[in-house]
Design brief:
Elements lengths: L84 H14 L7 E7 L5 E7 L2 E3 L2 E7 L3 H8 L2 E8 L4 E11 L2 H10 L2 H9 L9 H14 L12 E15 L7 E8 L2 E7 L2
Antiparallel strand pairs: 1-2, 1-5, 3-4, 4-7, 5-6, 6-7, 7-8, 8-9
Helix pairs in contact: 4-5
Length: 273
């Protein structure tokens, strides 16, 4: 039985993993003799003042995506686009990273169930190139159940701080085991054990069930030992045939430029906002 980093340039494999979605690396503590820095707000907490109480008027809502007058950047013109959508995406992803956006490689993956019900979740892009956009997951998960019946899916990169979105459509196919294993073994030891501990999307009785599985796996494969890749875990690649680049503009008159595959060529079309 065979047992989510800085996104690489187009066509390059993923390298050493950085913290994935839901994982964190704590900031370095204070040096000896220095006072500890105050901790920021936790999950679900807000650094901003609390909103109005019951019966109190709500404060003015801030500008929406693409509405801010001072923060909206230059528009997106056809002359600015690369001839290939992967090259254009690589440039925008690099700008999202340079801007310090959290998890710039996080994307919303939308699938459709056999009964036609849409489902969405966030996953991490691990590599991209002319052959498509790659992510890794548990093969028993709800997303893979959906894709087994309907391989067509949509990816969304929501780079709100830059007033940008990228929307990618295409068919998803599984990667062979030999292409999935190198990435699995590049993950932190704990993440490798986590892949074994969780049969993603299955119902479990309690958190304790998951913790107990993980504890037993720690005994089976202690730190420093090789963890085999589970047969129920691996990579998937979406082969893009539509890629839309969305740039927020004032008055909701956003720029939307879409690449559409036509044979071996790409056609660029402007869409009304």
């Amino acid at each position: 039985m065979k047992a989510d980093d800085h996104p690489p340039a187009a066509g390059q494999p993923a390298g050493r993993e950085r913290p994935g979605l839901g994982e964190s690396v704590p900031p370095p503590g204070p040096a000896l003799g220095e006072p500890a820095r105050p901790q920021g707000p936790g999950l679900g907490e807000s650094a901003r003042p609390q909103g109005p109480g019951l019966g109190e008027p709500a404060s003015q809502v801030g500008p929406g995506l693409g509405e801010s007058g001072s923060q909206v950047g230059p528009g997106l013109d056809e002359a600015m686009l690369a001839s290939d959508p992967v090259v254009q995406f690589t440039g925008w992803l690099a700008e999202a990273e340079a801007a310090g956006l959290p998890e710039p490689n996080a994307m919303v993956l939308s699938t459709v169930t056999g009964s036609g019900r849409p489902r969405a979740r966030s996953v991490l892009l691990k590599s991209h190139g002319q052959d498509g956009f790659t992510f890794y997951t548990n093969r028993t998960s709800a997303k893979i159940q959906d894709l087994s019946g309907n391989p067509w899916a949509c990816l969304l990169f929501p780079w709100y701080a830059l007033r940008r979105q990228v929307i990618i459509q295409g068919a998803v196919s599984p990667l062979p085991e030999r292409e999935s294993e190198p990435y699995f073994h590049s993950r932190p030891h704990g993440s490798q054990l986590g892949a074994w501990a969780s049969r993603q999307s299955s119902v479990i009785g309690s958190r304790a069930v998951l913790d107990d599985r993980y504890a037993r796996l720690e005994q089976r494969w202690p730190a420093g030992t090789a963890v085999p890749m589970p047969s129920f875990w691996g990579g998937y690649r979406l082969r893009h045939d539509i890629v839309e680049f969305w740039q927020g503009r004032t008055n909701r008159l956003h720029d939307r430029l879409r690449y559409r595959r036509q044979g071996s060529h790409w056609i660029v079309e402007r869409l009304a906002p």
